[in-house]
Each structure stands twice: as structure tokens, then as C-alpha cells.
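Reviewer comment 2.1 asked that we show a complete input and output for one of the modelled complexes. We chose the magnesium ion case, as it is the one discussed in the main text.
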Amino acid sequence: MNPIIKFENLSVVYDLGKSNETEALKDINLEIYPQEYIIFFGPSGCGKSTLLYTIAGLEYPTRGRVIVDGKSIKDLSLKELISFHRSAIGMIFQAYYLLPTLNVRDNILLPQLFSNASGREREKKAENLMKRFGIYELRNKKISQLSGGQQQRVAIARALINGAGIILADEPTGNLDSKNAKVLLDLLTDLQEKDKKTIIHVTHNPRDIPRANRVFYIEDGKIIRVVVNTEKPTIESMSKRKVSELERLAQAYPYLTETRLRAKLILNHLLLPFGVDIQQKIEKAIEDYIKGRINKEMLFKFLDSSPEEGGANLYTQRARALTGEIVKLAGEIKIIEEEKYPQLTLPAERAAKIRIYLLDNYKGHISFEQLKRLDDVLAQRVIGRIRKKRLEELLDLPLKKGGVGLNRRTARRFARQAELILMKK
Ligand code: ADP
Ligand code: MG
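Response of the prediction step:
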């Protein structure tokens, strides 16, 4: 499984060397895989548009590289860039907008001006797209006569007419009311699921988030967090899947930090019978414990002591048992050495780390072929392309059938251990 887009230590600096120098993107590494729906989420000015322009080859990396479909964009000649742009990239940009004085049909046909297709073929393509997006009746109207939602659908048709595999959408719902926004999001989802396009969508609106397979949170030119959306069907199966609780929580609380999520997770396991405010207090204490701000003894004291003393007021016996459980669970999550922002490691590197961990405790024989397959399968799990159950199946399936060829028991154990490691994103 090769990434369709890859950023290697990418930085983009505007007005380099001048007094108003702005570092819009700071040393970004990421990989995007074919047919993923990716959202870049962050506030205005964090670098989202710059990121899309860089993928499109409209903005050059100041440092590092962008590789699209195996090609390093900045090494293309102008001619190659134009042809790459025309065939590989479809853009739905607010600023890169439609021509208001042309009609719908001509706007959609515009990118076809330089294609080799016959006039008839082009017309047919445009017609199909207009029918699909419900704008065929409007074909002779000028863009300026359309509503925002209609214009955005024209923009999608135009982005698709050249058959591009990658669709870049910059705040595509930005100017739409919620009803039209939903129509547009449904269209983008269709492009991913039915047309098998790779969708890169940037937004500052949390409403869009459930559409993505993965959400990259950006702040101040940096990716601060990557969350796999487990509510959405996987690309591989688009069917049932098993979801880790941490993934579910990350989805439910997109703004929480990793440690906070882990605290919540542990809490959910242990505290279902307790009231909400005690839960919140304990959650905070677990977070402090995970972060090393308090030790085991202090955790116990907190659980045991009265509300006047700022404690959770549990029975001493319960407090002691709970302390033990929290310490144990927190320890399990810390299976491998803590890293800073481990979730930002590239999928292939994370897969390799998990593989090293798994094989450390494995006594059986494993061939080089199996190792490579193992890395591939783990990488698919890391990016959420497959779920735990499918991981287990693939680990067990013979090499010939696309699996890793381990025995059933090992497959089950590896899958479980991999999930535990993944939980500590
Ligand atoms: P977003 O799309 O998330 O709002 P942008 O990528 O447009 O963010 O901008 C990121 C940063 O780069 C901002 O500080 C912005 O002012 C700056 N910037 C964007 N485009 C240019 C440009 N062409 N020249 C100089 N600075 C720019
Ligand atoms: Mg922008």
C-alpha cells in the first residue's frame, strides 16, 4: 500500500527573509493513502489553504518535499506540472472560483479545453456530471444567477471533468447554510465511496469532521494530532467493524488531549456506577497520574479522602482497589516507551515499531516475506483502513491469500497486542 500523497519535512515560508516573514507550514510529515477522505481541521490562518496549494503544486515548498503519486512536485517542469495538475488534481476552492459571466456548461467544460477528447465526448461527460449533481436544468444559466449551493455543485462537476483521482476542497461548505452544506458533504462522500476518489478537505467547521476517515488537527502551521474516525465505515470493508474505546472517545471528544482521553477511557472502565462530578474529579486525578504529576500514594489519598479535603470520598477499601486498577491499566497503556506526540509518526514507522514489539516476544519462525506483509497489514491498521477483526484475519490468512501466514493463536495475540499499542496513539 503506497501513499498517494506524502509530505517530507515540508515547510512553507512566505516572504522569506523579509521583516514580515511568515512560516505557514512547519516541518510537516504525513502520508495519505488512496481513497481516503482526509480532513485538515484548524482555525483561520493555521495554514490549511497553503497546505492544499502545496499539494496542487500552486505553492512551492520552502524546505522539504511533497510527493504526489510518486512524483516530487517541485522537480516537475512547468509543462509536466500543468499536465499533472490537469489530470490528477480536481480543485473545489473558494478563491479558485467559477467564471461568473460564463454559463454552467461552459464553466464545467473549461478544464477540457486542452484535452484530446472530441467535442461530442466532452459534451457527453459534462452532461452526465450535470445530471448527476442536479444542475442539468441550469446548464444555460450564468454562474452569477445561481445560489451558493448550486455554484458549489458546478465547482464539483468542473473538478471532476478531467477524471482527477485527488479532489482538493478548501472550506467547501464555508458559504453554505446547513442544508446545502449537507448536500455538498454527501456529494463529497459519494465521490470517495462510489467514485473511489481521494478527498482532501480543509475546514474550520467541526460539523464536517464525521465525514473523514482521518482528521489531521492543525495549529499554527503544525499538525498537532491525528484522529482515526471510527464512526465511518472503513475503506476496505465499508461494513461492520470493531472499534477500540479510545477511538470512540477520540471521536466523541475531538478537542481533548491524548492523556485526557486515556484518563476518560480508564474511568469508563472503572466508574460506571459513580456520579458525574465524582467521575470528573477522578478523571482529572487519573490524568495527573498518567502525566506523572502525582504518584500512586497520592492517587490513593485523593480517592480516599473527604470532599472537604478535596477528595473523591470513596470507601477506603474501594479507593485502594481502584488505585490498583488505575495503576495497572495506566501501566498497560505505557507498554512502549513514551514518545512526544507518538501519533504523529508516519504510519509505516509506527507499523515497524509495533512489529518490533510483537516479534520481541515471538519464538516462532518468520520469513522476510512475512515480515514485509506484517508491516503492510499493521500500517493499514494504523491508518484505520482496516479494523481489529480484519487485522486478526489478515495475520492468520496464508501469504498466498494476501495474509501474513501466522497461526491462529499467534494472529489473535498479535492483533490484541497491536490494539493495545495503538491505544496509546
Ligand atoms: P488558512 O487557510 O488555515 O486560513 P493560510 O494557509 O491561508 O491559512 O495562511 C497561513 C498563514 O500564512 C497566515 O498567517 C497567512 O496570513 C499567511 N499567508 C497565506 N498566504 C500568504 C501569502 N500569499 N503571502 C504571505 N502570507 C501568506
Ligand atoms: Mg484558507
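Residues 238-242, 335-342 have pLDDT under 50 and may be disordered. We note this here for comparison with the apo prediction described in Section 3.2.
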